[in-house]
Write a structure and sequence with these properties.
By secondary structure, the protein is of the alpha/beta class. It has helices at residues 11-22, 61-71, 85-90, 92-115, 119-124, 156-175, 197-207, 226-239, 256-270, 301-307, 315-327, 330-336, and strands spanning 2-6, 26-31, 51-55, 75-78, 126-132, 179-184, 186-188, 211-214, 220-225, 245-248, 253-255, 283-286. Helix 2 (61-71) runs parallel beside helix 4 (92-115).
């Protein structure tokens, strides 16, 4: 199988690329290499014969059309996006450009390519759009996001992803193109750019820096290890019904404050002689973020029953593995860390 992956040098995209290439899939990785797209994230597979890389912007119409014509993919897995809420508050234009306009350009290129296919190649083609649960807004206690829920995005990032979701769906309805959409909760794991909650807190704690928590720290997020998410994406591509949306979650609800407390406790145990222990003393409260959604939680029943997928990594085990990975990758962190950026992982 030949799969065109966009954003394959980012956090989730690189995990997907590594898995696909190791499984023998022919992969074309398209990434424009913004601050969060790092070539070293895929260096373990970059020398493989079934891996190709194209540095290009998904807003570049000619480049996208050329990529489809030359690579001739069986499927597209679209992950390229600006993804950090704080950055979208500071500068929403970049999010609208990449997430909405870029998705539109990619869809038009895919449509033109798909229309030229015949027989089983046309029937088997898939366009999988990878999105976020943030498009649904904030939940009350006891409620869960489900497929078909109304969109209520509360940040420029969430609104831009909602717009891209609607574009993808419209291409399926209007043109009959076989599209799939996934909306996932908060990811964590290796190679995540340290502006999000877990890698930011790990790095700051290791350096003895403040661990900034927005507001009361009681905002709830639904956590999933990136490897479980990638497995879900591949399962949806293989078994999902065109035109459908699938919510990907690991039933991993945690308050932000609890995540940091657990993380600090594990660091205390792993580095008992650290001059910064107990690491919980590094926690500091900062002013809450504008429009900060209180709670996200996913009902993954459709994924479990229709696709036959379930996560394999508990949050406790995944967090421990993630902490150990970052502790052993200080050189990688030093190369990529933006010390001026605060994130809560939302």
């Amino acid at each position: 199988m030949r799969i065109l992956v966009t954003g394959g040098c980012g956090f989730i995209g690189s995990a997907l690329v590594r898995r696909l290439v190791r499984a023998g899939t022919d992969v074309l990785n398209i990434d424009c290499l913004t601050y969060a797209g790092r070539p070293e994230n895929v260096e373990d597979v970059s020398g493989q014969a079934n891996y190709r890389f194209l540095q290009a912007d998904i807003c570049d119409v000619e480049a996208m059309n050329d990529a489809f014509r030359s690579f001739r993919p069986d499927a597209v897995m679209h992950l390229a996006a600006e993804s950090h809420v704080d950055r979208s508050i500071d500068g929403p234009a970049a999010f609208i450009r990449t997430n909405v306009t870029g998705t539109g350009v990619l869809l038009e290129a895919a449509l033109a390519y798909w229309r030229g296919l015949e027989g089983s190649a046309r029937d088997g083609f898939r366009f999988l759009h990878v999105s976020t649960d943030e498009v649904y807004g904030s939940l009350a206690e006891g409620a869960y996001f489900r497929e078909g829920d109304a969109y209520r995005p509360n940040s420029p990032y969430a609104a831009s992803k909602a717009g891209s979701d609607h574009l993808v769906r419209s291409f399926g309805v209007t043109y009959g193109m076989p599209v799939l959409i996934t909306n996932c909760g908060n990811n964590y794991g290796p190679f995540q750019f340290p502006e999000k909650l877990i890698p930011l807190m790990i790095l700051n704690a290791l350096d003895g820096r403040a661990l900034p928590i927005y507001g009361k720290g009681d905002n709830v997020r639904d956590w999933i290890h990136v490897d479980d998410h990638v497995a879900a994406l591949i399962a949806v591509l293989e078994r999902g019904r065109p035109g459908q949306t699938y919510l990907v979650g690991a039933r991993g609800e945690q308050q932000n404050l609890d995540v940091v407390q657990h993380l600090c406790a594990r660091l205390d145990a792993l580095i008992p002689d650290s001059p910064h222990a107990p690491h919980w003393n590094l926690v500091t409260r900062v002013k809450d973020r504008p429009g900060h959604d209180q709670r996200y939680a996913i009902d993954p029943t459709r994924m479990e029953q229709e696709i036959g997928w379930a996560p394999t990594m508990s949050f406790a085990d995944g967090l421990e593995d993630t902490i150990r990975w970052y502790m052993s990758r200080r050189a990688w962190l030093a190369r990529v860390h933006d010390r001026g950026r605060l994130g809560d992982g939302a």
